[in-house]
Amino acid sequence: MQLLELLPAFLLVFIRITAFFVAAPIFSTRSIPAPFKVGLSFFLALIAFPLLKASGVIPLDWTYVYLAIKEVLIGLLLGFLATLFLAAIQVAGSLIDMMMGLAMAMIFDPMTGAQTPLMGNFKYMLTMLFLLTANGHHLLIKGILASYQAVPIDRWFNGLENGSLTAFLVEKFSYMFMSGMLLAAPMVSSLFVIDVALGIVAKTVPQMNIFVVGMPAKLLGGFLILMIVFPGYFFVMTRLFEMLFASMERMIEIMGAVP
């Protein structure tokens, strides 16, 4: 088979991996140069090309545009799913900052280009370091490469017609908010007790300016509670990563299911 006949199929592989890197955590950050992302996508496409399940030569016609759009959707959906789970860290950080009185002290995150909470950004950076330490980026790449076994490049993916893919994404979206609430629950509940205690002090000792004393007390209490619950944070992250990779595998199964 000539090289020109293989080029359309190779470009479809390259499109899916590039779209995945646009939305996936770690790889989608602005700190990684765009030429590096394109080069990594190209060499991974060379590795994934022998895994193809194409029925034959893919012609360059209007059907090819249809297939290219399909590859972009698959890459973006898989990358979005991985990012969705890590968004629970930002949700937990927003709740903690609101209780600690740091909600107005938002910082600019150069990796995402958006305003992020202090605690959310702190925990997100720790999560990224933990993901890299546990070789989670290798598992993300393994997931996108495994998708070619379930979803060939020459046919549309399943799950949209019967709504199973949409229902799966909505379920994981709700799981993301639930995970964020559970991550923030120890500190939020403890800070709520501090708020109740400050309210009792304000009623029993009206001479005390509770607005002056309350903010430093909540900050001090919040950081002390953070030091206490911090060792268990990485155990929770391990469970979250397990759910992330299991959900990616389940999504690939849904998209590759035979109708």
TrEMBL record:
> GO cellular component annotations, sorted alphabetically?
bacterial-type flagellum basal body; plasma membrane
Task: Provide the membrane topology annotation.
Answer: Multi-pass membrane protein
Q: Which UniProt keywords apply?
A: Bacterial flagellum, Cell membrane, Cell projection, Cilium, Flagellum, Membrane, Transmembrane, Transmembrane helix
Transmembrane portions of the chain: 6-27, 34-52, 72-96, 182-202, 222-241
Per the record, the domain of life is: Bacteria
Transmembrane as UniProt keyword: yes
Pfam families in the record:
Bac_export_1
Enumerate the subcellular locations listed in this protein's record, separating them with semicolons. Answer: Cell membrane; Bacterial flagellum basal body
The answer to whether UniProt assigns keyword Transmembrane to this entry is yes
GO biological process terms, semicolon-separated: bacterial-type flagellum assembly; protein targeting
* Role this protein plays: Role in flagellar biosynthesis.
- Entry's family note: Belongs to the FliR/MopE/SpaR family.
Q: What is this protein called?
A: Flagellar biosynthetic protein FliR
Which organism does this record belong to?
Aneurinibacillus danicus
